[in-house]
C-alpha cells in the first residue's frame, strides 16, 4: 500500500474540485492507502464547523469528518484559515493546524502527490 | 518520465504537455475535462485526443454531466474513483492537475 | 536519509488568482521543513515560471502601495534570499518581449542569488529529475 498526499487549494463551493479531492481521498483510503490532505488558499476556509448542508451547495463537513475517522490526516494552512475567519475554536475537530512545511514534509514521505490548484 | 495529467477544464491551455513530452503520458479527464471524451464541435473530436497519450475519463463526472460512458470516443477509457486510485499508484509516477 | 526533489511549476499570471503566489511561498517552506522530517532528510524545490507564469517575474510591482498586499515581487525576493533556485523560461520571456533587466532581483536586499533565465529544456529536465511536480 502507498501514501497519497493531496494538496487542495480550491474553495469548498464553486468548482467541484473540493468534492473530487474528498472522493478520491476516500477511494484511496478504502483501498488501504495512507492519505494526507492539505488545505491552502480558498480550501482553508472549509474546516469551519456547523456547515448547513443545503442541497444547492457542495458540502464539506460531513465527508471531512468521515475521512478523519477513517484515518486521513487533514491539515489546514493556519494563516490561510485565519485570513478567512476560521480559527481553532470554530474549526472541525481533528483538523490539524500548521504551516506550509507540513505539506512539504508529507510530500517527502509520499509515493504520489496530487496538487490541485485553486481558482 | 511517466506523467499522469488530470485535465479538469474543457477550455484549457495544454501546450505544457507537448513541451514536456513525457515518455508515457496519461490524460485523466475529470470535472469539465470529461467533455473532451464525449463532445464534438462542428463534428470534430477534441484535439486533446490527438496527443500521444492514454486517455481516461471519470465515470462519475461523465454521469454528473448527462454523458453516457458507453458512448465515448474510442480512445478514452471510462474509469471509477477506485480505478483511478489504482491507475495513479500503478501507472504514473508523477501527477499534474490542470 | 533522503533528499526529495520537487518541481514547482507556475503557469498562471499573478493577482487574479492567489495560486501563483502560493507557488513561491510553498517552495520557500523548504527552509523550515526539516523540523518535521527525520534527521538527514531534506526537500529541494526548484521554482519554475513558464507560459503566462513568467509575468509574475516583472519587477516594479506596487501591490502593497495600491491594494495593501504583499507583492509577488516581494515573495520572489524572499525566495532568492533563502537561496531557492528560481528558473524563468527564456522562450516565454521572449514571447512577451520581456528583457532580463525587467525581471525581479533582490540586490537591494543583499541577495547573491538571481532569477535564472533558462531554456524550457532545463525546466523539462527539472521536472524529469523531480520526484513530484506541483503545478500552480
Silhouette of chain A: globular
What profile does the largest beta sheet of chain A have? Answer: 5 strands, parallel
Order of helices and strands of chain A: EHEHEHEHE
Specify the structural class of chain A.
alpha/beta
Overall description:
- The complex is a heterotrimer of chains A (119), B (98) and C (136).
- Chain A is α/β, with parallel strands linked by helices and 119 residues long.
- Helix content of chain A is 32%, strand content 21%.
- Chain A has helices at 17-30, 61-69, 78-83, 100-108, and strands spanning 3-8, 34-39, 73-77, 96-98, 112-116.
- In chain A, strands 4-3-2-1-5 form a five-stranded parallel beta sheet, sandwiched between helices.
- The radius of gyration of chain A is 13 Å and the shape is globular.
- Chain A starts with a strand and ends with a strand.
- Chain B has a single domain, classed as DsrEFH-like (Hypothetical Protein Ychn, Chain: A, 3-Layer(aba) Sandwich), CATH 3.40.1260.10.
- Helix content of chain B is 27%, strand content 26%.
- In chain B, strands 4-3-2-1-5 form a five-stranded parallel beta sheet.
- The longest helix of chain B is centred in the C-terminal third of the chain and has 10 residues, at 81-90.
- Chain C is α/β, with parallel strands linked by helices and 136 residues long.
- Chain C is 31% helix and 21% strand.
- Chain C is built from five helices and five strands, in the order E-H-E-H-H-E-H-E-H-E.
- Chain C has a five-stranded parallel beta sheet, with helices on both faces.
- In chain C, strand 3 (85-89), helix 4 and strand 4 form a beta-alpha-beta unit.
- The longest helix of chain C is centred in the first third of the chain and has 10 residues, at 19-28.
- The two termini of chain C are 28 Å apart.
- Chains in contact: A-B, A-C, B-C.
- The interface between A and C is medium-sized, with 21 and 25 residues.
